[in-house]
Write a structure and sequence with these properties.
The protein is of the alpha+beta class. Helix content is 37%, strand content 17%. The protein contains 16 helices and 14 strands. Strands 10-11-12-13-14 form a 5-stranded mixed sheet. Strands 1-8-9-7 form a 4-stranded mixed sheet, with helices on both faces. It has a 3-stranded antiparallel sheet with strand order 2-4-3. Helix 6 crosses helix 7 and helix 15 packs across helix 16. It is globular.
Length: 413
């Protein structure tokens, strides 16, 4: 078994994720977007909008400023000239995946998650799922609130519990819960979004005809295909790494890895410093050096698996959204900063749209960063300025928190 260094694994990962590809010199096009998708395989969705929606940021991190309509059109507003490239599905989490991958992430392939708890709700309302499908067939793409209103006048909603007044975002009506269940198991799809609300439609009206007409993949074949995609996106990874990318089950992942190794599509390797076996995509490349800079949102595939981030970059990273403010170490919504292949700093960001500025509530340098602080501050200031302009903001304002704040404030000025 070949032994590789941790540095080789790190550079392979960065190349696999597209951080050695040059940013476009002109406007970002669908072709550039497809290049990113070929690298990262999927874009995670998240409702937090304190800085920018999670699915936009990985594209910006790799391509620089781009017209978000390029991504919106590819996912939610296709046309005859520009067919749909992406569709929503449960993959790593709620994600955008290439339309051709939709059959691979079906409910027969991926483990049951939160929707496995919806059995009692479906038993309580045995006709509700069919009633919802009927409304979607008639009105789709349509949101859960409109579906609920359509059911109520006809009495079809029965004793279905509505969303209580003043409810939090997570307190969903029972109609919304069943809509989400039907989406999770592939009986509904997301046709479009309005103000980030899912508008449900029938899969046959969302997915290309050739996808709908194709045979349902054998689960074992689908798992192998997803593990191969994970390896391509990671360059080198452990069994846990390969499993986490699409949140696969452990037993079927181990079987798929063994079969891919036998077929020569994965290479077992030992990575110095790693405490478990690893597997390398034979097609992965190892650049001699990695140059350039990028801000990474918490849901970027380069950092979303926190234990892997710490193993590869020596960078301990936690999202602190749900941590009470007095107990937060770095801030509410913290972006790691990648510079020349290292995670050298982190910044707590907020797009203050009312004031028209990108606020840096805190800026922190990594103690063991190889780069000198003045260069980190200068490069970070330049990338923050690019991000602010991309978001339509007038500038960057740096607060007081963090050991890098003073140097960054001077660099911004």
């Amino acid at each position: 078994m070949r032994t590789i260094s941790a540095d080789v694994a790190r550079r392979s990962f960065l190349a696999a994720q597209g951080f050695t590809d040059a940013r476009p010199s002109g406007p970002v096009t669908r072709r550039h977007l497809q290049r990113v998708l070929g690298r990262v395989k999927l874009l995670q969705l998240d409702s937090v909008n304190v800085a920018v929606r999670a699915h936009y940021m990985p594209v910006f991190s790799r391509l620089g400023a781009f017209d978000t309509a390029v991504l919106d059109d590819a996912a939610w507003a296709p046309s005859a000239r520009r067919p749909r490239l992406l569709t929503e599905a449960w993959a790593h989490e709620a994600s955008l995946v290439p339309v051709q991958d939709w059959p691979l992430v079906g409910h027969r392939v991926l483990p049951q998650r939160w929707w496995k708890h919806y059995g009692p709700l479906l038993e309580k309302h045995p006709t509700l799922a069919e009633d919802i499908r009927a409304v979607v067939a008639e009105q789709g793409p349509v949101g859960a609130g409109a579906i609920e209103k359509a059911l109520a006048p006809e009495g079809r909603a029965g004793d279905v519990r509505p969303r209580p007044p003043g409810a939090t975002w997570w307190e969903r009506s029972e109609v919304k819960q069943v809509c989400e269940y039907l989406f999770a198991v592939g009986e509904l799809a997301v046709g479009t979004r309005r103000h980030f609300e899912r508008r449900y439609d029938l899969p046959a009206r969302v997915l290309p005809p050739e996808i709908m007409a194709g045979p349902e993949p054998d689960p074992a074949d689908a798992i192998r295909a997803l593990v191969a995609r994970s390896a391509s996106a990671l360059g080198v990874g452990t069994e846990t790494d390969l499993r986490d990318y699409y949140r696969l089950g452990p037993e079927r992942t181990r079987i798929a890895i063994a079969e891919l190794v036998d077929a020569g599509e994965l290479e077992p390797v030992t990575v110095r410093g790693w405490d478990r076996p690893a597997y390398r995509d034979p097609a992965s490349t190892v650049p001699r050096r990695v140059e350039g800079r990028a801000l990474l949102c918490p849901f970027d595939p380069l950092v979303w698996e926190r234990s892997r981030t710490e193993r590869i970059f020596g960078f301990r990273y936690r999202i602190e959204i749900y941590v009470p403010e007095p107990k937060r170490e770095y801030g509410y919504y913290v972006f790691p900063f990648l510079l020349d292949g290292e995670l050298v700093a982190r910044v707590d960001l907020k797009a203050d749209r009312a004031a028209g500025v990108l606020r840096v509530h805190g800026a922190f340098a990594e103690a063991d960063a190889a780069q000198p602080e003045p260069r980190i501050a200068a490069e970070l200031a330049a990338e923050l300025a690019t991000m602010a302009e991309w978001l339509g903001l007038d500038g960057v304002v740096v607060g007081e928190r963090g050991d890098l704040a003073g140097a960054l404030r001077r660099a911004v000025a």
